[in-house]
Design a protein that fits this description.
The chain has 326 residues and is α/β, with parallel strands linked by helices. The protein has 7 helices and 17 strands. It has helices spanning 44-47, 139-146, 186-194, 226-234, 244-253, 289-297, 299-311, and strands at residues 25-29, 36-40, 53-57, 59-61, 65-68, 71-75, 86-92, 107-109, 115-121, 128-134, 171-174, 198-204, 220-224, 239-242, 258-262, 277-280, 322-325. It has a 9-stranded mixed β-sheet. A 6-stranded antiparallel β-sheet has the order 5-6-7-10-9-8, with helices on one face. A two-stranded parallel sheet has the order 4-11.
Length: 326
């Protein structure tokens, strides 16, 4: 359990993309000294130092929501050891607003003549099911043809897939946007480079979350390339992760090169061994990621940060504001 508890007013849920990505608000929380300041994301080059290394997740978002008769299916990650047709899925109501009861043996007819067979509960039960897609072509190709971005009830309008992509994304595989990187623009990245801030990449394909459940993250596929491991080893400044997915990948390998599936859950007891800072969004009450943030910020600074965010009208979710913890 995290050290903080709060209620999120619906007025603080970001319901649409901001007019400019880097115009979102940014809270900066410094563990040394406990200072908190409020600025805009476009000021990031002024907040970092030459030699700092930003590590970003280049996984691109798939259109992973599929309409079905009486349901909406959210496709999630591949399954280690099983073929390309197998996926973890969440079955939700037709409008996507809430989970829908699902059971093993159920067959759901999808767009494009495909059928989804629900085989068994995934990892012992809960909202996710292990499923096999019977349809034309690979799952990713099917999603590209017939899917749309996953969205939840706080986003009332449909937005095109480009609104759910980070500007540096290159490798399709995430079913929900690794949204900590959304405020970056090409111009901002150029300004960071001119200021002497370095950039490195990892890939971690993010699975489905759920507004109704706060279970620990499930296994996710990742890669930390050799060139990134060398950059981390040689970094003269701080290693700052852009998103909790980057923290999970780097802490899994200890900053070394590696790939596979990670089941690592990070909390205050384990602590951090590679990462010196984090750029992230604002997480929901009881979200498991709050334990990771507590490991980075400490409980007192995290409580103060969230208290000021709630009082100051910061916005939550993928289109919302940002939090830099150093």
């Amino acid at each position: 359990m995290s050290a903080i508890s709060f209620e999120l007013p619906s007025a603080l849920e970001a319901t649409a993309p901001p007019p400019r990505r880097d115009a979102v608000r940014l809270m900066v929380a410094r563990r040394d000294g406990g200072q908190i300041e409020h600025t805009r994301f476009c000021e990031l080059p002024e907040l970092l130092e030459p030699g700092d290394l930003l590590v970003v997740n280049v996984s691109a978002t798939l259109p992973a929501a599929i309409a079905a008769a009486g349901a909406r299916v959210h496709f999630s990650t591949r399954v280690p050891g099983l073929g390309q047709a197998w996926r973890v899925v969440e079955v939700r109501s037709e409008d996507g607003s809430r989970p829908r009861r699902a059971h093993a043996g159920e067959r759901i007819k999808l767009r494009g003549g495909a059928t989804l067979e629900l085989v068994a509960p995934y990892l012992g039960g809960g909202r996710l099911m292990l499923a096999r897609l019977d349809g034309p072509g690979p799952v990713e190709s099917y999603l590209q043809l017939h899917g749309e971005p996953i969205r939840y009830g706080y986003v009332s309008e449909r937005w095109p897939l480009r609104e759910y992509q980070n500007v540096y994304a290159t490798t399709p595989g995430s079913v929900e946007m690794p949204s900590a990187g959304r405020p970056f623009t090409g111009e901002l990245i150029a300004q960071l480079a001119a200021a002497g801030v370095l950039m490195a990449t990892i890939t971690l394909h993010a699975g489905v979350s759920s507004p109704e459940s706060h279970e620990p993250p499930f296994p996710e596929q990742f890669e930390v390339p050799e060139v990134t491991a060398r950059q981390i080893e040689r970094a003269s400044g701080r290693v700052i992760a852009v998103g909790t997915t980057v923290v999970r990948a780097l802490e899994t390998t200890g900053g070394r090169a590696g790939s596979g599936w990670t089941q690592l859950v990070i909390g205050p007891e384990r602590g951090l061994r590679v990462v010196d800072g984090l750029i992230t969004g604002w997480h929901e009450p009881e979200a498991s990621h709050l334990q990771m943030l507590e490991a980075i910020a400490g409980p007192e600074l995290l409580r103060r940060s969230y208290g000021q965010a709630l009082a100051g009208g910061y916005r939550w979710h993928e289109f919302g504001d940002s939090h830099l913890i150093l």
